[in-house]
Amino acid sequence: MLVNMKEMLEKAKKEKYGVSFFNAVNMEMAKAIIGTAEELKAPVIVGTAEVLLPAMELKHVADYLIPMAREASVPVAVHYDHGLTFERCMEALRLGFTSIMYDCSTLGYEENLKKVEEMVRICHGMNVTVEGELGHVGDNAGSGKLENPSDYYTDPEMAVDFVKRTGIDALAVAVGNAHGDYAFPPKLDFDRIDLISKRTGIPLVLHGGSGLSDSDFETAVKLGISKINIFTDIDKAGKRGIERGLEAGARTMMELMPYETEEMKKVVEEKMRLFGSIGKA
Q1: pTM over 0.85
Q2: Among residues of the chain, what percentage have pLDDT more than 70?
Q3: Three-state secondary structure call for residue 48
Q4: What's the Cα-to-Cα distance from 123 to each of 64, 67, 84, 119, 152, rounded to whole Å?
Q5: Are the C-beta atoms of residues 13 and 203 closer than 8 Å to each other?
Q6: What is residue 112's predicted lDDT score, i.e. its pLDDT?
């Protein structure tokens, strides 16, 4: 069933488990994610991000994800992640996405707040949830890499003000996490997660989940992380599946697809089990 994130994440926060968000830039990914969620009776969030649109345009993602979510036997939210432009967020709304992350985290505090507040006003009028980001989650490599990541960590006092004034439904936090592959094991600031969760009272979101240890995830969820974003792990799993299919003698894309889907389903199940969302639908 197609839902927004509000009740899904509020339940997760109350019962101290995490809901997985997976980007699904093709049908094989979507089938692996939603199919596994149905098998495990777990709520799930699927979608795409603005930086991934070169791989699959937004309207095409909506064409397959939204009908699949509607037909699913478990709650599925369709989320537009890291929306960087107002225009693209509005396009996602028109296409039927049920959740929007408007990422203005690289802007000054007041500008971030003002833009996200406006997005909340628009989205809530359409029964769509909004995720904001305070602090900034950088990348592990490339142009998004931060020189001193701790300079961009989420400030707990500012988070209280931000949540109150914007009315967001979930807050993405910067606590030592980063997007992409980790060159070295990250050190999450668990005290900061705990404080922000207690002070704001809303579900928190951990971006850059691929590559964190099991104990990192378990502790973060216990302290208030209710949504965990995963892409690199499932993306790599798809590649492994194709390689395994080639080794097994598959000669066509049709023959490769089952291998690709099977490997991605393993990752989805692993994360759902780790985050404690199995049986929570």
Answers
A1: yes
A2: 90
A3: strand
A4: 22, 21, 16, 6, 27
A5: yes
A6: 96
